[in-house]
Every structure is written in structure tokens, then in C-alpha cells.
Amino acid sequence: MSQKWCSRWWAHRSVRFRIRSMWLAYESLARRDPAICDEVFLRTIGDHHMPMLTGERSPMVACTSSHQPGKLLKSDPIEEGTL
Questions:
Q1: 73 falls within a domain
Q2: At what angle are helices 13-32 and 47-54 packed, to 10 degrees?
Q3: Residues in CB range of 18: below 8 A, 6 or more apart
Q4: How many domains does the chain have?
Q5: CA atoms within 13 A on the CB side of 8
Q6: CB of 10 within 8 A of CB of 4?
Q7: Other Cβ atoms closer than 10 A to 65
Q8: What is the pLDDT of residues 28-57, one digit of tens each?
Q9: Residue 33, domain member (yes or no)
Q10: Which domain holds residue 38?
Q11: Considering the domain boundaries, does residue 79 fall inside one?
């Protein structure tokens, strides 16, 4: 399966919502238990949401991507006031 990604990911409202929700969850976990927050986040939140963000049913499915496995996902600068 190829990953779907858009360098303007932040222009997709549902993607922005999901990533913000993931970030808030991570921040909460990091405050409560910094020793295990990364593992818990990846197992319970990150691994759940990333297939929804980058899979065949992604909100970005119509966007083209130059993402190659092992490289960082590209992001254009976020326009002021978007977040």
C-alpha cells in the first residue's frame, strides 16, 4: 500500500483536526508519565490514526505525494492563522 500525503496537509480540515487531537493526547501523556509516553502514544494513538491519515481512505487521497519510505513527509509552511 502506498502512503497518501499532501505537502499542504494543514489545508485539509479533517487532517488538521486529527493531528491536533493526537498532539493534545501526546502532551497529556507526556505530563502524566514521561518515561513511557512515547510507547503508549505510538501503540494506542499514533498507530491508530496514521493509517487513517495516510491510507487509501485518507482525506488526502486525491493529492499527489513525493513521499518515499524512510524520508520525512514534506510540509509547505503553514499559512498564518491556519492553526
A1: no
A2: 170
A3: 49, 52, 53
A4: 1
A5: 8
A6: no
A7: 15
A8: 999 999 999 999 999 999 999 999 999 988
A9: yes
A10: 21-61
A11: no
**Three-class SS string for the chain?**
CCCCCCCCHHHCHHHHHHHHHHHHHHHHHHHHCCCCHHHHHHHHHHHHHHHHHHCCCCCCCCCCCCCCCCCCCCCCCCCCCCC
Per residue in 56-68, pLDDT tens?
A: 888 888 886 543 3
| Residue 30 buriedness (CB in 10 A; 0-12 / 13-18 / 19+) | middle
For cell 520525512, what's the residue?
A: 72
**C-alpha of 64 from chain center:** 17
| Structural domain includes residue 46 | yes
Beta-carbon neighbour count of residue 45 at 10 Å?
A: 16
Can you tell me the distance from the alpha carbon of 28 to that of 14, in angstroms, rounded to the nearest whole number?
A: 21
Its pTM surpasses 0.90: no
Evaluate the CA torsion angle 48, 74, 24, 38 in order and state its sign: positive
